[in-house]
Specification:
Radius of gyration: 12 Å
Helix content: 25-40%
Number of helices: 2
Strand content: 35-45%
Strand order of the largest sheet: 4-1-3-2-5
Order of helices and strands: EHEEHEE
Largest sheet: 5 strands, mixed
Length: 91
């Protein structure tokens, strides 16, 4: 199975609502690898790699977000997989 990857910037009400932890749980459930973090601009940044099917499912979830979030925009960029071993929350 060919590995794919993407990075994404998610904007809206996405900080302080459990977005990172929910994204980590969702990514792990889908067997994706990478990371999620807040940035200084009030956005959430994501790097995800895995199967195309599970990445598509994750992207659909990112567009909705967890309860209490309000996603306004997801800017996705295809990337080359880097070989991450798990899915972590970064500071």
């Amino acid at each position: 199975m060919e590995e794919k990857a993407f990075s994404a910037l998610i904007s809206g009400r996405v900080q302080g609502v459990g977005f990172r932890h929910s994204a980590q749980n969702q990514a792990r459930r889908l067997r994706l690898r990478g990371w999620v973090r807040n940035n200084a601009y009030g956005e959430v940044e994501v790097w995800a790699e895995g199967s195309q099917e599970n990445l598509s499912r994750f992207l659909t979830w990112l567009r909705q977000g967890p309860d209490y979030s309000q996603v306004e925009e997801v800017r996705k960029t295809d990337q080359v997989p880097q070989g991450y071993g798990g899915f972590d929350i970064r500071a």
